[in-house]
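In this supplementary section we document a worked example of the pipeline. Step one takes a protein sequence of length 149 as its only input; no multiple sequence alignment statistics are reported here. Step two produces a three-dimensional model, which step three serialises into structure tokens for compact storage. The input and output of this example are shown verbatim.
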Amino acid sequence: MKLLYGAILLTCAPLLLAGNDAVYPTDKIAAFVFEKVDVTTLPSAVRPKSVKSKKTFADYGYVARELDEKKALLDPPQGASQVSIAVLEAQKSGIYVCVNTQSAGQSHDRFQRVLLLKLKNGLLKGRETWREFDSCPVIGGGDKDSSSY
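The serialised model returned by step three reads:
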């Protein structure tokens, strides 16, 4: 009986471990981020007002104006902030991006942070990270409300 349990465990082990190693693209990473990022997990200064059943930038009406290998400039729907995303580093552990927003209002508030995006359930979940990149200094905002997973 112990031998049977051991055989079952060895057979199922690859299936259990397969979910831990997400596969990230090696080219057109910015387009992948635009399509797959779950904006509900981003800091409040970046994400649009939450609407049930909407998860991605496209769901909220954002359109990619400029989209290249490592950078995306997103045109917002009426009244929302413009967002730019720059891919800083893509690793097996996730994708580091610099997210920058500029509000269209009179205050012209600016917010910039380094986020770590990890693939979970088909979407990229984001959170602020401790890693710093010279090309993405922290600008604006003081909240630490991005969700962790």
